Automatic annotation (TrEMBL):
This is Acetate kinase. Keywords: ATP-binding, Cytoplasm, Kinase, Magnesium, Metal-binding, Nucleotide-binding, Transferase. Its cofactor is Mg(2+); Mn(2+). It comes from Halomonas alkalicola. Homodimer. It is found in: Cytoplasm. SUPFAM superfamilies: Actin-like ATPase domain (SSF53067). Mg(2+) binds at N9, E377.
């Protein structure tokens, strides 16, 4: 398929899009329709000359916003649509061509991702209504981690909770971990063992061996694992009962605090934005310094724990807004892993920012490498969409 793929990431009040051409050297058109359904919707994007534009969309909902996105594609018609879907449960181990059955299966998984899957499906319904003739593909955040062995995905809970209710670890950010680990394989010229750290607003780690995810830090929901922008990551499982008993907090309140009021924001009392925290820590703000310290310490502990899943450690890959742009976080994480025998190159670390890909260590035989690899979830979704359509066309 030579036409571009339209990649859609649909939230409850927003649609992020990218028109990804078949050739990597052609420009992408990207943008975001936001505040949908609020009466004050707008479309922000970047055109093929790299110039930013904004359009008011008034009381547009998802369908109207998609129509506006299509108009803004400068006459380029996509050959297919690739949808980012957060949760594919155990059913989807790879991308799937969307039909009524697949939509029903995604709906059936909504209990596991109540904020995300229904919103993702709104995007699917709107695109199917608008582009009935185009093939649509669902690419799942969880699919890459379906290769986890039971010892990594089972919780030590009564078996019936798993068998009857699907309570297990699923993992997320799969598209990103898949992309950066494949890229690390290509750059290193091996099918290696990688620890990947996706550090953005949401944060997760994965252990990838020869292209297969063997363990990951997120679990049943994207709340497990690392400290994130506003999410707590791991806490004592007894915390919920304690807060309910001692403070009389409702489940909704506890859930809200752990998802929206914790993490870097909760620790620092200042911000969920790493740039702001680094500047404040530099200026002597104790809460900001502590937040960065806990953040890095949790990453290092997670990487050390996940290394148990790998037969051999060939390197650590940093990605996501923080992983790609914060030499300070990378340096602190590496400093907390002295037993891995890593050798950070301070100058390469300082200089590898703003979308640059490269090694930030001094290469030596038998020493795990340190890579910064900007993630490309849209590119990966487009690739998986093309690959699936190529296979079904045969
Ligand atoms: P999302 O998970 O929403 O896609 P991103 O991957 O864009 O988010 O990551 C957002 C995070 O990256 C924010 O905490 C932001 O502060 C951080 N970040 C972006 N640029 C820098 C920088 N130059 N230094 C430190 N952190 C940065």
């Amino acid at each position: 398929m030579n036409e571009p793929v339209l990649v859609i990431n649909c939230g409850s009040s927003s649609i992020k899009y990218a028109l990804v051409p078949a050739a990597a050297d052609q420009p992408r058109l990207t943008g975001l329709a936001e505040r949908l359904g609020s009466g004050d919707a707008r479309l922000k994007g970047v055109d093929s000359r790299g110039e930013a534009f904004t359009r008011d969309l008034g009381d547009a909902g998802h369908v109207e916003a998609l129509a506006a996105i299509l108009e803004g594609l400068e006459g380029r018609r996509p050959g297919a649509v690739g949808h980012r879907i957060v949760h594919g449960g155990e059913q989807f181990t790879r991308a799937a061509l969307i039909d009524d059955e697949v939509v029903a299966a995604i709906e059936a998984t909504s209990a596991l991702a109540p904020l995300h899957n229904p919103a993702n499906l709104q995007g699917v319904a709107a695109t199917r209504a608008l582009f009935a003739e185009l093939p649509q593909v669902a690419v799942f955040d969880t699919a890459f981690h379906q290769s986890l062995p039971p010892r990594a995905y089972r919780y030590a809970l009564p078996e019936a909770l798993y068998r009857e209710h699907g309570i297990r670890r699923y993992g997320f950010h799969g598209t990103s971990h898949a992309y950066v680990s494949a890229r690390a394989d290509a750059l290193a010229g091996i099918e290696g063992g990688w620890l990947t750290a996706h550090l953005g607003n949401g944060c997760s780690t994965a252990a990838v061996w020869q292209g297969q995810s063997l363990d990951t830090s997120m679990g049943l929901t994207p709340l497990e694992g690392l400290v994130m922008g506003t999410r707590s990551g791991d806490v004592d499982p007894g915390l919920h009962a304690h807060l309910a008993r001692e403070l009389g907090w409702s489940l909704e309140r506890i859930n809200d605090v752990l998802n929206r009021g914790s993490g870097l924001l909760g620790l620092s009392g200042l911000s969920n934005d790493m740039r702001e925290l680094e500047a404040a820590a530099e200026a002597g703000h104790a809460g900001a310094a502590l937040a960065v310290e806990v953040f890095c310490s949790r990453i290092a502990k997670s990487l050390a724990a996940l290394s148990c899943a790998l037969p051999r450690l060939d390197g650590i890959v940093f990605t996501g807004g923080i992983g790609e742009n914060s030499p300070r976080v990378r340096e602190q994480v590496v400093a907390l892993l002295p037993h891995f025998g890593l050798a950070l190159d301070p100058e390469a670390n300082r200089e590898t920012i703003r979308g640059h890909e490269g090694r930030i260590d001094a290469p030596a035989p038998n020493r795990p490498a340190l890579w910064v690899i900007p993630t490309d979830e849209e590119g990966r979704i487009a690739d998986e969409t093309r690959q699936l359509l190529g296979e079904t066309a045969r």
